[in-house]
Design goal:
Blueprint (H helix, E strand, L loop, with lengths): L3 H24 L9 H12 L5 H11 L9 H11 L16
């Protein structure tokens, strides 16, 4: 149960999770809800603003994928965003708002 004084924080957390998931989806070009090394190398600098070279991107990818599966899952991605304190904000898209 959410009490009134917690509601603002709940909305903030929901918005943040949505932004992180949209960033994850943007990198997941295959749409399989996993990010491969190739997808990470192509999208991480732009989506996450990392500005890393190829070797550093590979090292970051290996540090994110903690389950040893060779893919980054959303939970691992979200943990990385929190640990690195990355500022992920997706601009609102008019198509997301249908009030009819």
């Amino acid at each position: 149960l959410v009490v009134k004084k917690e509601f603002k924080r709940l909305l903030y957390c929901l918005d943040w999770c949505n932004d992180v998931f949209k960033a994850f989806e943007e990198m997941d070009t295959e749409g399989d809800r996993r990010v491969s090394l190739e997808e990470f190398e192509k999208g991480a600098n732009e989506v996450l603003g990392l500005n890393l070279g190829a070797d550093d991107l590979k090292e970051a990818f290996e540090s994110i994928g903690t389950n040893g599966g060779g893919q980054i899952l959303f939970g691992e991605f979200a943990n990385y965003v929190v640990k690195k304190k990355l500022d992920i904000v997706t601009p609102p898209d008019v198509a997301d708002f249908h009030f009819d």
